[in-house]
Amino acid sequence: MKIWQRIGLLILTIVGLNGAEARPGGGHASSGHSAPSGGGYSHGGAYNFGSYGSGHSFSGGNVKLGGVPADLPAAYIAIIALILLIYLLRQWDKPKMVVAQATSAYKSQQNNRLQSQLAVFKQHDTNFSTVLLLDFVHSLYSKFYSYSTHSEFSYLSPFLSPSIQTHFQQAGPWTINEIVINGLRIENIGTIMEGDQPTDRLSVRIEANYTLHQQDHATRYTVTERWVLQRQHGQLSPPPEKMQVLSCPHCGAPAHFTDAGECQHCGSTISQGANQWYLSQRAVIQTTALATADLVSYAQEQGTALPTLLQEDLAQQQQTFSEAHGLATWQDFWPTFAEDVVKAYFLDIYNHWSQRDWQAVRHLLSDRLYESNAFWMALYAEHDWYNRLNQLNISQIEAVKIECDAFYEAITVRIFAACYDYTEDAQGKLIGGSKRELRRYSEYWTFVRRNGVTPSTAPYSLTQCPQCGAPADKMGQTAECGYCGAKISTGAFSWVLFMISQDEVYEG
After folding, report:
1. DSSP 3-state helix, strand, coil percentages of the chain (rounded to 5)?
2. What is the tens place of the pLDDT at every residue in 53-74?
3. Backbone dihedral region of 485: left (phi > 0), alpha (psi from -120 to 50 degrees) or beta?
């Protein structure tokens, strides 16, 4: 209920309109005194907060300036005042609605622009994959900070511009660890001219947090950065095995280079941009120190009422996806996917989150998503807290985006849900949130799967390895099945949850 609705309800209560009554369809109705035809005040139909319809007339004599009949009781004068007040409050509330609508329109415009850029870029790099690019940036970002001020920083030489390679040379003795990346988003991608040479360039916005150790003091920070990556034009992106981890583009061994870019495994010298993206520029947009209290802060949901951001050509992408899988229509795929994957994953993942048992859903999560949330899970365990999501219920699931490339297919959905969201300690003492107020929210979840995965004819099971069918009770930290040794988190055998975006920041 908006503020002008709450005030209107309060005033109606104060003036004591005993004739008001609820009725089917909602709203309230009140009837005034009778009057000869053509005179007095008549109120016909229901009065719904926020609307003032027709059927109201002032006519005849005994009228004061402003059109208010002189013989009206004080309660009715209060109604007129209420109408004026509601009108003013609604006008005051409109700017926020306009801003929200404008924000959604801007995000949709920006996303459509990016999708057009990607379509053009993929014409000369048919191997380009958003999923793999974000995995690569995740790995580079983590190593960039964990190696900073340490000798291992030279291992990254082929992936950093010369100026950035020397960035930490004069830095003091400090260490960064517990690096958590919460969000990665490509902002722009294309080809530019540097002198007379075409160069591929893209920018990525990164939302992250990490712990900075200086002498005997440690501070956790949340940061927003923009990274610009470049490479020589005319290349094909490497396959998943060389994109999901930092490795030598020549031999595929883990990145271990000298300052000059020589691989310590195969001896090849790799120059910036010759075989892989490298970081050419970086900018720190915002940095904020975090406190333990931030773990249990419960801000009001911001984007639940925002319009759903749909892919511009979603219907066409649905049809293309269906045809690629030998299906007549999207509806031959969607109901089963929504029920057996989206809903099942959502409930199972958040149930184990509430129990502080993140390892139990390791096989359902991408490496990046698992690692980023494992830190917070460990922090909750350190304080012996539990973030409970009780009576979790999904009210709606919408398909919003489908993206397929040479290696992966990705489906993004918007999930509307509600639960009692609170944090308590091991003894049940409330630390934050509410056990009584239902929290309604929505999130965008992206699921990915390798191309060519043959769906099983057996009912899908969250508790079994999708490769060998054994119980999923021996998944290691790297999501390798303890029975068959297959790595599940790459999406090579079934869908994995790749990304969770909050509705107020999702841009498509």
Report:
1. 30, 30, 40
2. 333 333 333 333 333 344 445 6
3. left
Residue with tokens 């150790």: 213
pLDDT band at 457 (very low <50, low <70, confident <90, very high): low
Q: Which residue has the higher pLDDT, 286 or 28?
A: 286
Question: Strand runs (DSSP E) across 154-258, as ranges?
Answer: 174-194, 197-214, 217-232
How much is the pTM?
A: 0.76
- pLDDT digit string, tens, across residues 231-259: 999 999 999 988 988 888 888 888 888 88
At 120, list the tokens. 């053009």
Burial label, 428 (beta-carbon count in 10 A; 0-12, 13-18, 19+): exposed
Report how far residue 186's alpha carbon sits from residue 204's, in angstroms, rounded to the nearest whole number: 4
Q: Which two tokens stand for residue 190?
A: 């294309």
Q: What is the mean pLDDT of residues 328-337?
A: 96
Rg of the Cα trace of the chain? 29
pLDDT of residue 2: 39
Dist CA 112 CA 124 (whole Å): 20
What gap in Å lies between CA 49 and CA 8, rounded to an integer?
A: 7
CA distance 411 to 432: 34
How buried is residue 20: exposed, middle or buried, by Cβ count under 10 Å (0-12/13-18/19+)?
middle
How many CB atoms sit inside 10 A of residue 37's CB? 8
* Cβ-Cβ contacts under 8 Å for 308 (sequence gap 6 or more): 398, 400, 414
pLDDT digits (tens, 9 = 90+) for 109-152: 888 899 899 999 999 999 999 999 999 999 999 999 999 988 89
Query: 246-256 burial, b for 16+ CB within 10 Å, e for fewer?
Result: bbbbbeeeebb
CA torsion, ordered 236, 241, 243, 248, to nearest 10 deg: -90
Q: Provide the 10 A C-beta neighbour count for residue 352.
A: 17
CB atoms within 10 A of CB 90: 19
User: For the chain, give me the number of helices (H) and strands (E)?
Assistant: 9, 13
Give Dmax (Cα) for the chain. 102
Token pair, residue 227, equals 């990274």
Residue with tokens 């773990």: 295
Q: Which H or E run includes 100?
A: helix 74-121
CB atoms within 10 A of CB 224: 16
**Helix (H) / strand (E) containing 145:** helix 130-146
As a whole number of angstroms, the distance between CA 16 and CA 43 comes to: 17
Q: Which residues pair with 137 in a beta bridge?
A: none
Closest CA to 435 of 422, 419, 417: 422
CA distances from 306 to 94, 262, 430, 506, 508 (A): 14, 51, 31, 11, 13
- At 227 the three-state DSSP class reads strand
